[in-house]
Amino acid sequence: MKTHWIFALLATSSALALPVQAQRLCSPTTSHVQTVVGPGVYELAYSPRQDAVYAAVAGGFNDDAPPSSLVQLDAATLQEQSRLLLPYRAFGLALDDQANRLYVGHSLQGRISVIDTQRNRRLHTVQLSQLRPDGKRYEHDLRGLILDKSQGLLFVPGLSAGQSVLFVLDSRNLALKTRIPDLGFYPTGLALDEQGGRLYVSTMAGEIVVIDTRALRIQERWTLPGVHQPINLAYYQGRLYVTDQGLDSITPWQQRLLPKRDWSGSRQQVLMLDATDGQILAAQPVQGNPLAIRLDTAAGLAYVSERSERRVAVYSLDTLRPVAAATTDKLTNSLALDTRTGRVYVSLKNPAKGQELQEESVGLLCFDPTPQSGQ
After folding, report:
1. Cα separation of 304 and 290, whole Å?
2. For residue 135, what are the CA distances in angstroms to 108, 139, 153, 222, 277?
């Protein structure tokens, strides 16, 4: 996979009674706050304990690019509270708020950094992927990462066209517990059923790989009919939510590397699956290449970044019917939620060509719970 494909993959109404939380502090009048954090902003994480938003800022990809950093922002104002410089480009984040730990994925160097969020310092860096024999690239790039707190395990897919793996890291001693092979063609999305002991991984072959997190083995695989780019996942109460990106620029790459698969009619959609067998329960066509998805289960809502439309849309968890949407001035990428206040945080990116070193931002959005008419 060429480098620009890696960045593309790294790259998160009807009449509905909306069960808004009693102490909701967010309103559309406080929305559309933005803060510049630097070039190459990717994943976000909200910390209730710190009442802060963390942003992974890669810093750009040219030789003269500024250094990578982890930026901490005030959750209400988005004012910068701290900036921790990192030795490698930062992309993915996984937060263990109770333990005051934040795991940062360095995709292009095959590493994970462990950050002490209370003291704002880097504790350790773990090397997961090894250099290829030519010494120019690592065997696997890393994309997302997800933490199973009940077992103390950090799951990190290693991306490859034919030899993808799932790295399983013991979060207590930071030792590599195992590598699960045969993960599939460029794994992208992650969702965890912690109680049920199942990890769901989507791949760019249009499939879902189900991992038994207790036995640490692949349990089953589902090929999703008519789903070509299941880029991100979320899980809740026996249902799996999927964003099918439908990015035209990725389809030729899929056709070239998997020529036996029918890649015609790529769709942009959000889906709800039965998490026991992969059956599609609902599908909502959308515009703008849906990317990140985050769930507010108490409010019964799913938030989706629709990247090329430069908006974040809100859908009902039960039906996937559209509830609300907010448009921004940049490409919407990753999402984080403060479900107590209703605040939605989004990383805002520039169009890719020629703007790699330009500043990018984090935005704060609030949504009016009044159903939109005419939907």
Report:
1. 6
2. 13, 10, 30, 36, 42
Question: Looking at 149-206, which runs of residues are DSSP E strands?
Answer: 153-159, 165-170, 175-180, 187-193, 198-203
Instruction: Catalogue all structural domains in the chain, each as residue range(s) with its CATH number.
Output: 3-365 (2.130.10.10)
Give the model's pLDDT for residue 134: 81
Question: CA angle, 293 as apex, 124 and 116 as ends, to 5°?
Answer: 20
Which one-letter amino acid corresponds to residue 114?
Answer: V
Distance, CA of 370 to chain centre: 28
Tokens of 280: 């599609």
pLDDT, position 12: 38
Question: Read out DSSP for 61-111?
Answer: SSTTPPPEEEEEEETTT--EEEEEEESS---EEEEETTTTEEEEEEGGGTE
Assign 147 to helix, strand or coil. strand
Q: Do 295 and 317 contact (CB within 8 A), yes or no?
A: yes
Which pTM value belongs to this model? 0.91
Buried b (16+ CB within 10 A) or exposed e, 110-132: bbbbbbebeeeebeebbebbeee
Tens digit of each residue's pLDDT (9 = 90 or more) over 119-132: 999 999 999 988 88
> How many other C-beta atoms can be found within 10 angstroms of the C-beta atom of residue 352?
12
Scored b (16 or more CB within 10 A) or e, 57-75 reads bbbbbeeebbbbbbbbbeb
State phi, psi for 311 to the nearest 5 degrees.
Answer: -145, 160
* Phi and psi, residue 330, nearest 5°: -135, 175
If pLDDT is split at 50, 70 and 90, which confidence band does 211 have?
Answer: very high
Q: What tokens were used for 135?
A: 């010494």
Segment 120-123 long-range contacts (CB within 8 Å, at least 24 positions apart): 120/72, 120/82, 120/84, 121/84, 122/84, 122/86
Looking at the predicted structure, is the pLDDT value of residue 227 above 60?
yes
Query: Would you call 230 helix, strand, or coil by DSSP?
Result: strand
Dihedral of alpha carbons 88, 92, 96, 100, sign: positive
Angstrom distance (rounded) from CA 114 to CA 360 = 24
